[in-house]
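In line with agreed milestones, work has continued on tokenised descriptions of protein folds. One protein thus recorded appears below exactly as we store it:

>
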Amino acid sequence: MERIEIEPRADWQEKVEKLGFGFHTAETTYWNEAAYYQFTRGEIDELEAATNELHRICLEAVQRVIDERLYSRLGIPEAFVPLIVNSWEREDLSLYGRFDLFYDGKHQPKMYEYNADTPTALFEASAVQWFWLEERFAGADQFNSMHEKLIARWKEGGISGPVHFACVRDHAEDFTTTLYLEDTAVQAGLVTKRLFIDEIGWNGKNFMDLEEQPISRIFKLYPWEWMIHEEFGPHLLKEPWQVIEPAWKMVLSNKGILPLLWEMFPDHPNLLPAYDSPEPLGDTFVKKPRLGREGANITVSVNG
């Protein structure tokens, strides 16, 4: 694996904006064309194998949480346990998730965490990167087929009728990601409708859209741990709709799953040592909250 510096395209901002990628620059440059990473086929195979293995053991961890009722350990309210169990037993459609890995091309990939419920960076990695690659290195391969696999996954879902797509208002990254996923659903032959989370209503029986039509299936780029605490949260228990990502992802999007995985698979080559308290790690460790987005509330302790 090599990091190779390269001259950015002179008009790259205009080009990515034409693709719908409007959040390329925030406080600093988010999309950086001054360097790229080059992998060998063997390294890509190693990353893919590690990802498949991590997904496998994570599913085992979900089963253990359900079998042993370990919800309190993850801070999941008891009232919402039936949502998790029912969605797991029905094998409700799970579309995607994002593992955050450490990898240097020399050691086995290690999992930092698993964003299993509301992962972003999808549009950039699947589409924007592809057009950059086509222009700069025609004939090269970006070593991912996420776009094609998303379309295939929608087709596997056995979905009929419209799918609503929702995210929080006034958040460019979430909105763009939601639009992209809606596009993959359309390419899979599904009928879609769009609205914001705050536009979802309740009529006493069903969640409703702005046209007062029942929402039977929804993709929501909005954390489950927020949804269950909303004003309409208790109505989720009636299960009036199918949600993507499903409720069982509450288990895996919770960083409390990391010490549980280390318990179940000690010294696993793709895991970092993780515990519920810092004592086993001495005075050098990283402390994360169970729930948090974009690195919020993380503490790094080095020699105390």
